[in-house]
Amino acid sequence: MKxxxxxxxxxxxxxxxxxxxxxxxxxxxxxxxxxxxxxxxRSNWDIYAEFHLGIPLKPYQRVALHEIGVSDVYFWRxxxxxxxxxITACAxxxxxxxxxxxxIVVTASTIDQANKIVEDKIERELIKKLSPxxxxxxxxQYLVITKPTDGYKIENTLNNSVLRxxxxxxxxxxxRSNFTIYDEIAIMKKASLDQIFDGMLFPxxxxxLNLPEYAGKSRWVEESKSIYLTSSKYKYQWWxxxxxxxxxxxxxDKKTKYNMFATDFFDNIANGLKTWGDYRRAKRVNNxxxxxxxxxxxxxxxxxxxxxxxxxxxxxxxxxxxxxxxxSMDVYMGNDLGNKKKEENELRLVIVDYAFTNTTSxxxxxxxxxMCMSLHWKKNRFxxxxxxxxxxxxxxxxxxxxxxRELWWDYEADYLVPD
Length: 419
What we know:
Layout: H1 2-22, H2 24-43, H3 45-52, H4 59-70, E1 73-78, H5 84-98, E2 103-107, H6 111-130, H7 132-139, E3 143-146, E4 153-156, E5 161-165, E6 179-182, H8 190-197, E7 225-230, H9 238-252, E8 258-263, H10 265-270, H11 276-285, H12 288-294, H13 310-315, H14 328-333, E9 346-353, E10 367-378, E11 381-393, H15 397-410, E12 415-418
Parallel strand pairs: 1-7, 1-8, 2-5, 2-6, 6-7, 9-12
Antiparallel strand pairs: 3-4, 4-5, 9-10, 10-11
Helix pairs in contact: 2-3, 4-5, 5-6, 6-7
């Protein structure tokens, strides 16, 4: 019995040696390692970026990049200087390198802004500065960057994946995307997303799905990805509803994988991306609302019981057909500034809110306000139209009075209403 078992072991050893000589075991071992490493990298884009591509990342950047890789929908709100475009560029390269036959689309409110992700972040910074591996692929023409039209295009000739920059215009219709990046989503038009880009998304056409054992098995089909980037704006705008949907989806949706991320200027300082000097400078040159939104990452809204909404103020801050006061040269030359002619049933007022006191601080925050208003008689009532408004320093109230008289004649006013 013992001799028989020894013969079996010897036969198996000889078969194993023959297999080694033919390269079968080595080939199988190599394939297993490729599967293991690919699975690790696809589940951890942050490890792939640092370990394989050689791109150094801050701790919070690792978290952000990892979440992008495992999300179907990802929303990143970040203050100025938060490196969200840099990390998104890393994510685009990870997708381009790890997934064959992949289509990636980058868009923004303007084509120039979207091009910056490819030109500044991907080509100049990631490829030519930070990653020796990507630089090697670029020099060997395995990564080919072109600009056939207005938008950049990156082709990975090793796996047939493509990244394209598209503008939010009708000509972008018909393109396809498995991974769409929206930069500064808050200033994009919602109609562009709904009508142009949402219809682009479709699952990646992996070649293994054509094999008989995967036929009809939808669990193997990959979900497409949407990545939204922005700094905060006003709460009444449509982007804030999208943000709330992503937050709700994170807690309640069991089918779509939502994730969100938020950073402000203090995170940038803590990670060495900005300094306290940058903070003080930004606070000095920006108004309060812009500073809170752009740097502190605060979405601005009104209190729940507010009588007027911020949207009502914003909508009325811009006059679509304003009165243009003529200069002395316009009056002398008789230039036509396109101002509306006074109607028969119209009254015109020049209203002045005088401010005579000066503040003791360095900033003069009390001004005389001069407003031109027209009253149009319609259906037994006057319809009011604000046609022009300007401010005048309180320290020069006499000059403001002369300016009001000047506007009274230029505007062909009927009454001067002082406060």
